[in-house]
Design a protein that fits this description.
CATH class of one domain: Alpha Beta
Largest sheet: 7 strands, mixed
Helix content: 40-55%
CATH architecture of one domain: 3-Layer(aba) Sandwich
Shape: globular
Number of helices: 14
Structural class: alpha/beta
CATH superfamily of one domain: Type I PLP-dependent aspartate aminotransferase-like (Major domain)
Order of helices and strands: HHHHEHEHEHEHEEHEHHHEEHEEH
Bound molecules: pyridoxal-5'-phosphate
Strand content: 5-15%
Length: about 475
């Protein structure tokens, strides 16, 4: 069974064990020492490709050479997202149980496109997503035993694209897609505009935001009225719980009421902040979700599940399945025909799907709900610590509220001072932050959320800010 046809270069079971242990040791050493690397890769364009041969090897190479090149070729071009000095973008957390689950998933090498192509893949995913509904205080009707349901996708961008396609499908009665309108705030993630483009939806209108960077619902209502008057058809509004720039929270309930009144689909993007809802004290931000039609969040950001792992929930699974299912004869089978099982290929664009639920399951079991709550609360506490330090220093000011783990501040010396502070912090090698801007105002984003970040790392960041400002 272990023989690979006529090839004589495959690993024997013993070689696989030996190499596998070496890989595990390598990863353990890496994670143990990740804080000793400069956080951002200093590779210049072409540095890594210069180390690669122009052609594929004709002859098999020993695994030990592959491992040597991991250090020689790969590592100089790696940015260390798992470093405790990682304050850039949002976290893309991993964790040991998640890594091990990925390993097992690759070892099993199954396709979970249909229930019947590996029942465990589907049934574990369904159960774990039901757990998450409870863990995050989401509407119980989204559970698989209600009208709704959840599905793991690759990314929030895919989930939002899927939601937009469904909203287009449900409103397609004689309305050409080029006359359809989707509303987002001017702070919304670019994936929504991209999703509209990919879905062929004619208009993606950016609604202005208020002083807190949250969608102005009066501006939304004015846009809807103007579009209807111009003969266009509003089909969907996408709101955010935690925008990417500043983690602003749109008024979910007010937007939901407008969506209901105007017959629009309401999709909620909580890609980053969704994880915070594991703690009850943040759930007021998602008030009104029971009126939403779909919702997405990324366990692959803050929940210690390594990329890729996104979840999309729909309040009613029927229109999603109607939009996404196409049934060629070779995919027909008894269980599916009887409607007694979920076939996840009908819940998204791809057909094939890997066993991503395993890592979500292993992470939740390894930390427990309490472990994840503890991590979130600690990160938010550390972010509050950063924010009060900034507030006390008269060289800086906060530019937005910090409801979760992200703190945005600027140097009062202006845009140039702000940008050079961001660049100097990143050049230190000890930390990574993200300089960003809204319109003409530059600021530095400090995202506290890497799973191993502690007070000492945050204090070192503040020391560096103090020195380099
Ligand atoms: C990160 C982010 C996304 C995109 O997530 P992907 O999974 O990388 O597609 C979308 N929306 C918001 C608010 C985000 O923060």
């Amino acid at each position: 069974m272990w023989e690979y046809g006529a090839m004589d270069s495959h690993m024997t079971p013993d070689e696989f064990r030996e190499n596998g242990y070496a890989v595990v040791d390598w990863i353990a050493d890496y994670l143990e020492n990740v804080d000793s690397y400069p956080v951002l890769s200093t590779a210049e364009p072409g540095d890594i490709s210069a180390l690669l041969p122009d052609h594929a090897p004709d002859r098999a190479e020993p695994f030990s050479d592959l491992m040597t090149d991991l250090d020689r070729v790969v590592m100089p071009g790696i940015t260390h997202w798992q470093s405790p000095g990682w304050f850039a973008y949002f976290p893309a957390n991993s964790s040991p149980p998640s890594v091990l689950a990925e390993f097992v998933s690759a070892g099993l090498g199954v396709q979970g496109m249909l229930w019947s192509t590996s029942p465990a893949v589907t049934e574990i995913e369904v159960r774990v997503l039901d757990w998450l509904v409870e863990m995050l205080g989401l509407p119980t009707s989204w559970r698989s035993d209600g009208p709704g349901g959840g599905v793991i996708q690759m990314s929030a961008s895919d989930a939002t694209h899927a939601a937009l396609v469904v909203s287009r499908h449900t409103r397609s009665d004689g309305v050409p897609a080029e006359d359809m309108v989707v509303y987002v705030s001017d702070q919304a993630h670019s994936s929504i505009e991209k999703g509209c483009t990919v879905a062929g939806i004619g208009h993606c209108v950016k609604v202005q935001t208020d002083a807190d960077f949250a969608m102005d619902v009066h501006a939304l209502e004015r846009s809807i009225a103007a579009d209807i008057a111009a003969g266009r058809t509003p089909i969907c509004v996408v709101s955010a719980i935690g925008t990417t720039a500043t983690t602003a929270v749109d008024p979910i309930r007010a937007i939901g009421e407008i969506a209901e009144r105007t017959g629009m689909w309401h999709h909620v993007d909580a890609a980053y902040a969704g994880t915070a809802m594991v703690c009850e004290e943040f759930r007021h931000h998602q008030d009104g979700l029971e009126m939403a039609d779909s919702y997405t969040f990324n366990p692959h950001k803050w929940m210690m599940v390594n990329f890729d792992c996104n979840v999309l929930w729909v309040a009613d699974r029927k229109p999603l399945i109607e939009t996404m299912s196409i049934l060629p004869p070779y995919l027909r089978n008894e269980a599916s025909d009887a409607g007694s099982v979920i076939d996840y290929r009908d819940w998204h664009v791809p057909l094939g799907r890997r066993f991503r639920a395993l890592k979500l399951w292993w992470v939740i079991r390894s930390y427990g709900v309490e472990g994840i709550q503890t991590m979130v609360r600690e990160h938010v506490r550390l972010a509050d610590h950063v924010a009060s330090w900034i507030e006390r220093d008269d060289r800086f000011e906060l530019v937005a509220a910090h409801p979760f783990g992200l703190v945005c501040f600027r140097h009062l010396g202006g845009n140039d001072a702000t940008r050079s502070l961001g660049a100097a912090l990143n050049a230190s090698g000890e930390v990574a932050v993200t300089p960003s801007h809204i319109d003409e105002m530059w600021f530095v984003r400090v995202s506290v959320g890497q799973a191993t970040t502690e007070l000492a790392h945050v204090d070192r960041l503040l020391e560096l800010i103090d020195e380099l400002a």
